Amino acid sequence: MKYSANCLLNRKEKFNLKLCINTELNTTNRNGINYPIIYGIGYEIKNKKAFWCNKFLNKGPDMLARSARHFSDGGNIQIYDPLSHKLTIGPFSYVSDFVKDCLSLPRKSLLRYFSTSPEQEPVHFVDNLLETFKFMYDHQSPLETYFINNKPKIYSKQLDGSWKEED
User: What biological processes does GO assign it (predicted)?
Assistant: First the structure.
């Protein structure tokens, strides 16, 4: 039986997803290279509907700072509080010595060295990476140039779905 990614979408049943591991069920093969069928799926609690979440046009506020944070030694953290509808990016720093060199690397090299699966990356992967490196180059000491007075960046979600930075 061929697995269909639509099996999680448009379900009438209620479900409580605690952990979802997709191995070969989420794999398709194109020209000898394995690709995921689903790059992202979300579940909206209010409407109790699953939906594709890999094609959001709006990825939320301050995407460059959020991306640059992955180059810090802070590890992964939860930045969105669904109860207050606030997204908080706490102050962080990183070693920026390598950034200037990365900005001049060929696109193929960036893809090769910064992706765990270069053949499967979406077309915008390298562009996003270069934008992140540009942000890091512009803010080589983010604790001084971006997080003024060591204050976090806090954004609240508005009723219309937009984000507003708090003072």
Answer: ubiquitin-dependent protein catabolic process
How many angstroms separate the CA atoms of 139 and 137, rounded? 5
Q: Which long-range contacts (CB under 8 A, 24 or more apart) does 71-75 make?
A: 71/95, 71/132, 71/136
* The pairing of beta strand 153-157 with beta strand 49-52: unpaired
133 CB-contact burial (10 Å; exposed 0-12 / middle 13-18 / buried 19+)? buried
Query: How large is the C-alpha radius of gyration of the chain?
Result: 19
Q: What is the pTM of this model?
A: 0.73
> What gap in Å lies between CA 13 and CA 144, rounded to an integer?
51
Three-state secondary-structure class, residue 165: strand
Q: Which of 1, 4, 41 is CA-nearest to residue 20?
A: 41
Give all strands (DSSP E) within 21-72, no chain letters. 27-30, 33-36, 41-44, 49-52
